[in-house]
Amino acid sequence: MPLVIAHRGANRLAPENTVAAFKKALELNVDGFENDVHQTLDGRLVVCHDDAVDRTSNGTGLICEKTFEEVRALDFGGWFAPEFAGEKIPALEEFFELCGPLKVVNVEIKRAADGSIASAAAVVRMAREMGVFDKLIVSSFDMDMLQACLAEDAATRICFLYAPDNEEACEAIEDDPAGFAKKYSLYAYHPFVMLVSEDYIEECHAAGIVVNPWTINQDHAMHMLCEWGADGIITDESALAMQLVYGQS
Ligand code: G3P
Ligand code: MG
C-alpha cells in the first residue's frame, strides 16, 4: 500500500501549508505531510508554497525580503474562508512539532527568489535538532539544493522532483533511472504522475529507489498507483486517498 502524503496539508479542507491544514490531515490519519519551505530575510524557515506571500495572504512581496515578524503579522487563512482568518504562516519548528504521529515528513525546498540555497542545510539541521530526521525526506526540483542537504548530512534522504518541462532530466531518467539516482545519491524520485508507468516503478524498485508521484487526486489514478506498487502518493485529496488505500470512511 502506498503511503498517503497530504500535499500542503489537507489543502481542500483548510488553507494550504497552515497549521490548520496539517491538523486536518492528522484527523484523517494520513501517513505523511508534504510542505514547501522558504527562508525569511532574518533566516527563519517558514512554510509557504510561493516565494511571495501575495496569493495566500493579505500581504504582498517576497518572503526573502521580509523578516519573520513581518510575515507572521499577515493573515494566511482569510483568503480561503472566513473561519480561517488569522491563520499564521507556520515556522518550520511548528510544522515539525505536529509530525509525531506520521511515518514520513516530506519537506520540499525551493530556491529563494534571490537565488539563495541556504534553506537546504538549515532544514536538515532543524530536523536533526528536533528529532524528526528519521522521518524526513527532502524533495526539490533543484538538484543543487538536494546536494546541499547531502553536504550537510550524508544520511539525508533526498528525493528528486521532476516534470515534463525538465526535458533533460526526463530523458536521462527514462534512459537509466538507476544510473541517474546513483549519480546524485537519490533516495527517491518524485515524478509528475504522467511520467509514471508500471515498468518505471519496477525498474526503480529493482534499483532500490523509492517512487512517490504527485499530485494524485483522482480515484482511478490512486487505484492504478496502488496496483503498480508506488511507495507513496502525494495528494490534494487526502480523505479520498485514505478511503481508497485503507478503506477508511
Ligand atoms: O512535492 C510535490 C509538489 O508539491 C511539487 O510541486 O508546485 O506543488 O510544490 P508544487
Ligand atoms: Mg510542493
List the helices and strands and how they pair.
Blueprint: E1 3-7, H1 19-27, E2 32-39, E3 45-47, H2 68-72, H3 92-97, E4 104-109, H4 118-129, E5 136-140, H5 143-152, E6 158-162, H6 167-175, H7 177-183, E7 188-191, H8 198-206, E8 210-211, H9 219-228, E9 232-235, H10 238-246
Parallel strand pairs: 1-2, 1-9, 2-4, 4-5, 5-6, 6-7, 7-8
Antiparallel strand pairs: 2-3
The protein binds SN-glycerol-3-phosphate and magnesium ion.
Tell me what you see in this structure:
The chain is α/β, with parallel strands linked by helices. Helix content is 35%, strand content 17%. The protein has ten helices and nine strands. Strands 1, 2, 3, 4, 5, 6, 7, 8 and 9 form a nine-stranded mixed sheet that branches. The longest helix has 12 residues, at 118-129. The mean pLDDT is 97. It binds SN-glycerol-3-phosphate and magnesium ion (MG). Residues 7, 34, 36, 49, 108, 139, 161, 190, 214, 234 line the site of SN-glycerol-3-phosphate. SN-glycerol-3-phosphate is lined by residues 7, 34, 36, 49, 108, 139, 161, 190, 214, 234.
